[in-house]
Amino acid sequence: MSHNIDVFWSFRSPYSYLVTPDLLRLREDYDVSVVLRPVLPIALRAKAAVFDATDKKRPQYIVMDSYRRAKFLGLPMAWPKPDPVVQDRDTFEVPEEQPYIWRLSTLGIEAERRGKGIDFAYHVALLLWGGTVDWDKGDHLMRAAAKAGLDIADMEMALEQYDGKAEIAKNHERLEQGGHWGVPTMVFDGEPFFGQDRIDTLRWRLDEAGLRRD
């Protein structure tokens, strides 16, 4: 019987983007189902606790380190234009209106309902972080979804039939219950593995559980 790995993942997280190819390989190498659990970026989940606007070290490090890590992994890397989160770069303030991240995140919910969550995340993250300017215009998203075997128009019609935002809120609760707050967090058998650089530790745990495919 296949085991689940819940992946708490954000379209605005460079580290979520960087771990996604490894998540695809998990499905190939182990008898596991990799379940995409889209969550909002922490800038929206915990507005008051994210960054001190007077101290730029943390965001500067994240940008520097994610570009360095992408180069190490041989992956293309450019900060998305437009940014999936509408945010003031000086004050870190975020308005209530967030059209990009909600659309992407709820589409991720629908993709997982169709059994293609990680595939959708992979192709859309590559679109966002791979250097495509104006990824939100034209047929960019449609083509990325098609690579995952999905139809954007059909997905958006399906989203009209249920509350995708409520599903994201449930994922926020699941992430807390899983013992963490950040992304990407992979939860296997109740144990959280936080960060793109913990994928090898997760693979070690899967080996311990005897789940490697022959």
Describe the structure.
The chain is α+β, with helices and mostly antiparallel strands and 214 residues long. Helix content is 49%, strand content 10%. It has helices spanning 14-29, 42-45, 57-73, 99-113, 117-129, 140-147, 152-159, 164-177, 199-208, and strands spanning 3-9, 32-38, 185-188, 191-194. α1 (14-29) runs antiparallel to α5, α4 runs antiparallel to α5 (117-129) and α4 crosses α8 (164-177). The longest helix has 17 residues, at 57-73. The model has no long low-confidence stretch (mean pLDDT 93).
Strand content: 5-15%
Q: What best-fitting shape do the alpha-carbon axes yield?
A: globular
Mean pLDDT: 93
The total beta strand count reads 4
Specify the number of helices. 9
| Gyration radius, rounded | 17 Å
- Report low-confidence residues grouped into runs of 5 or more: none
Distance, first to last CA = 15 Å
Helix content bin: 40-55%
Q: Major sheet: order of its strands?
A: 2-1-3-4
Briefly characterize the structure.
This protein is an alpha+beta fold and 214 residues long.
